[in-house]
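Notes continue from the previous slide.

Worked example: a multi-chain complex. Inputs as given:
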Amino acid sequence: MDDETPSTTIDRRHFLTVLGTTAGGALALSGCSTDNVQKLVPYLVQSEDQVPGLATWYASTCTECPSGCGVHARTREGRAVKLEGNPEHPINQGKLCSRGQAALQGLYNPGRIKAPMARSADGTFQEIGWDDAIARLAAGLGKAGGRVAAISGAGRGTFSDLLADWTSALGGRLVRYETFDDEPQRAANREVFGTDQLATYDFGRARYIVSFGADFLDTGGASIENSRGFARSHGFEDKDVAKLVFAAPRMNLTGLNADQWLPTRPGSETALALAMANVLLAERGGEPAGLAGALASYTPAMAERETGVPAGTIERIAREFAAARPSLAVAGGVAGQHSGAVELCAAVNVLNFAAGNLGETVRFGADLPAAGGLAPLAELTRAMGAGEIAVALVHEANPAYTLPNASGFAAAFGKVGLKVSTSLHLDETAALCDLLLPEHHALERWDDLRPRAGVYSLMQPVMEPVFNTLPAGDVLLRTARAAGGALARFDAPTYEAHLRSRWQALATELGAGDFDTFWHEALRLGGAFRDPPASPAIALSVSGGQEARYTPPAFEGEGDFVFIAYPHSMLYDGRGANKPWLLENADPVTKITWHSWVEVGPGAARALDVRNGEILELTSPHGTVEAPVYVYPGLRDDVVAMPLGLGHTQYGEFARGRGVNPLDLLAAPTGEFVHYLSTRVRVRKTGGYRKLASVEGVPRQLGRGIAEAIPLAAAQQGLTVEQAYMEAGRGKHEVNTERELEAVHGWAEEQREATEYGDYRGEDPQWGMAIDLAKCTGCNACVTACYAENNIPTVGEAEVLRGREMTWLRIERYWEGGEEPGDPVSARFVPMLCQHCGNAPCEPVCPVYAAYHTADGLNGQVYNRCVGTRYCANNCPYKVRYFNWYKYNEKAWPEPLHLQLNPDVTVRARGVMEKCTFCVQRIRGAQNHARLEDRPIRDGEFTTACAQACPSDCIVFGNVRDPGSRVAGLQQNPRGYRILEDLNVRPAIAYLAKVLHPVEA
Amino acid sequence: MAVAAPSHPVGHEGLVMNQTHAEVTRDVVATLGKPSRGYVLLLLGAATVFLIGLLSFLILVKDGLGHAGYQPPIFWSVYITTFVFWVGIGHAGTLISAILFLFRSPWRTAVYRSTEVMTVFAVMTAALFPIIHIGRQWIFYWLLPYPNQRFLWPNFKSPLIWDVFAISTYFTVSATFLVFGLIPDVAAVRDKVSGWRKTAYGLASVGWRGTDNQWRHYSRAYLYLAALATPLVLSVHSVVSWDFAVSIVPGWHGTIFAPYFVAGAIYSGIGMVLTLIIPLRRALGVEHMITPEYHFDNLAKLTLLTGSILFYAYGMEYFVAWYSGNIFEQTTFYRRAFGPYWWAGWTMIICNAFVSQLLWFRKIRTNLTSLFIISIFINIGMWFERFVIIVSSLSNDYIPWAWDQLNPTWADWAILAGSFGWFAMWFLLFAKTFPIVAIQEIKEMIPMPRKRGGHH
């Protein structure tokens, strides 16, 4: 046929167009709707924001904890597939923690309530329509006559304001309840500084940080913001490294990142803080005399008696703290909430004040005061128990689970006439309710949050709702329409309209001019961000140093051990317990997955004669729990500790009946907060055993140089790790002999020449990575990001027990020291992933070329070609290859969790090997993009999922052949080393050694 | 006609053959008679065990390898252990039938057929395991270099591909050698049976009539086949050893591996020969053809030799680990003796290195009971040798964080047992179908008939 003849048949381009739009349309329609559309319906007019194969990003706000981080939701063909931090957002600046990323598994959670339900006569829930549901709530309110209460965990924002107005219009009350709400700190700030606000801490500027139990890198406060700051001050970027001292009976993740751990007696840290302030004032002089006088009795000797920390150490730390400017002391944390918690926070406030840190590293003005504490909830509990409440509405809160049984909440709540929940899940509180009005997930609805002054963070729907749910704001407005009366003034047609009207007012308030421009800019940015107001001048509100008090802690009950309950790193207060990612992603400290455990110190374990996995029974005056032992070197021998967050009786198939709830051991909250550190427990061996579902192997490096460190002085001189070892007189740090090295290096040289003459010489990029161990805090955010990006299946507890977790990227945590009693223990974290070796041992042994080397330096893995001999995994010295022993892909994503899958990445079948690909889909995507624009890839234009997520930015990815790239520069850093370098596998990842402060007593 | 072909050994001072040619034929053909009750029960037992293994394998195919006790980093375990075990077993057969043939060791005559049969079936058993062990068993043929429209070839750098060639070559050559050696015997059986069996054996004897010309060609061809099979004794297990030695796993990566594996293979093979022949000679009533003083003594001496080589190799592995100063090697070997797999490590050393030293004593060498017990020790010890090399090395390589231990399950044990059932089933079927003692070679041992003459 002549080329010029016009073809009457369909040509390739036309065919692809039709195919693309048809398939895209079908996916867009079927991917996110409950209607189960079966027809292929082509777009008549292509949607502007839906290009098949291209991702659309929406800015929104994370609601997984009170921090209020900004997120970017990546959507493909109409459904959200990944959450990343919003780089424009002032709080998290582009980073997101594991819990935030796992919000995606909340969106698609199989445990979500799929439609409104009402309790029927036989006690079960029956699905009803929304009109019916609203009518029932309106009728209940009509009869209640003001005896209405709402319990809400929603953050500050338009919804909370609406709910407050709505309840007060009804004559009812609104009780705000957030499980971990820094109440002791708030109370101490009131007492010492006369402000209701919480401070924001500038870890980035602090030269010396003392944490009195505060877990600021993980579960305490805005951990992403804190990690970013901590990486700046504690990483080795310039010529100095801030020092972190951690004082608490148990090392949490922050403790594991400390340069020194002071294992204080539980509840005694106040004495330490006051003694430090005392020494500091004596050192500096010229500070308020009244304060010095009040502190005079808190000598280091007195503190030694109370805390068990040697007076000399206290004195030295106090002097170092005084000498470093600015410094920073942080207190509190859930695990330290004992009867003297307010005193501790007050003492630390005094210490910061004395050190001159106010306005420097401790700033006020940004926090928005919240309604305080548990007292209103306690009062409400009493009122409910007395039958004074007719209608109770529970929103974003699960007090029936998160309060100790002893609080009596569940029993009192049961006496309310009409109990209504807007929970997404059938949690413990919702299960007690009569009417379930499931709310849209945060990614499905319009809303906003004001986590702090100047931050107006927007939420917008990123996709159609997965289930037949309704935003709680619309529930309030529709109920108002149905009930009329006092509620008649809530006349916005929808919550979205209400929100927009509020933002119109905000635009005026901020002087933004044209609303449409402001609104679209806010949607694009994820909100409206203004500089926080200047820190007001803060002074001690009480003179004479009355705030400097220390009451030795008293613990109820008897037994040899004080009991610590602390927030679970992944599950937080238990809200993550139905998300497989968070259950399988190991706790960063203990590396245990899927179940509860009880931590016992090494000395106590010897005394009790228990080993890992033996089941202990803990008995307090309030209850008994049983859990397997984990012997934890970062724990004093007179305490035992357990994570909160498990032991659900409801909440979904993954959470229900899993683990135990340590709240069962705790007393009812008294005053403003739950005392998580308040009781002694008796410990008894039950004789039972269960193997810990742990991902920990042998936690010692055995001299293999995996997680290297270098003394600060050596790093400052620009020495390499090897030079630093030689300097320290420890001989050449290597495993091979001279002769062997000669042979190996000679051979390596030959290999290098051989490959350069081969196909891989030329203009191709060589992808590589640099990981700075001085910055890595071991937080696991990268691991969750990797699960999300690469469709990594969770394998479940039984398979983790058989060591078959599929973590392409894992954080290895090695102990240093601590082998003899009294020898201080510390931890080193190493993110371990495929090293993409230039001379990879996995490649030649594959009989079918499933493992092969790409021209741009990746170790490719062709799943389709893999027959599963597993030789590659045997021959991988880093053990970063993972095998599909079963059909994990069929079990890991029960409907509708499968909607989270990233369409750019193959879901692997059973019987094939898989591993880190350096996010090859992102590399190819960026290459395609650059090619369309006819330009080379720019450094930093894209990065891997792990590097994108890392809160401390310790992972840098890029083209090492580009001399101007960040990664090429970092790989030349003198601290750089390659793990198992002597094997001559030539890994593409350079690790930068951790920088250590000199060890002092 | 010349009874003894020039290449065949004639007579031996240690061996006295008091039988006539006719008696030999009669005795051997008698073993092919109606099966006894015991035989049938044994065969049914073997078939049942095999079926259990087969069922387990089908479950693996259905659900995935997860049922077996793999615990990363132990990506190879019981199946590869058993694979190497069975490949090793085969070697003694070839050694006895081919190498000893070339070296003119007359004592091989009475036992070589059974060892050759053992070789073929052991290789057949071994060949199952690479297929059982891979993740996607249904595409095992991707390891073969066959022409395909994707223009994909296997990776000839991978020792697993060498394995494919080694095993398939070994099976082809040893099966050919066995079948070829059978021809005159099958013809002898043909001449003694009637009915359909005569037709069947007639077909199987491919027109053998025992003419001078046929004998001349036969003995030449047999010699060449023996010469062809001989290097395989050394090469096959060397190649199998490279599955390990070519990798960089501490405990695998050793230059000693090829000779070490070959010695181990022969050692394990003779162990299995002893285990099989001691009961077999009684069951078949051929005690007078295979005697403790001559045959077993010689087999035991070979066991002692190879066992001592193993002893040396074990010692040398430890020496090299220490002498190299390589901490990875040192840790692996320290843990082999004192780590979580100490029991397997010591089982291997006791059963192989120590027990074989008992054979310095002639009394033990010629006592069938002690030999049988020792042979069982050898079988167990050699299975554990491969288990130790594979599992204990993998359990503690470079990254301590990844270390873990194996937890074998029913799927491991059922398929291991099934392989014994499969092997025994074939062996038993063969023993009732073909002469398990080589008729014509036994006859060559008998001095030329003088009085009764006639029969060739």
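Summary box: The CA atoms of residues 15 and 318 of chain B lie 43 Å apart. Residues 1-16 of chain B have pLDDT under 50 and may be disordered.
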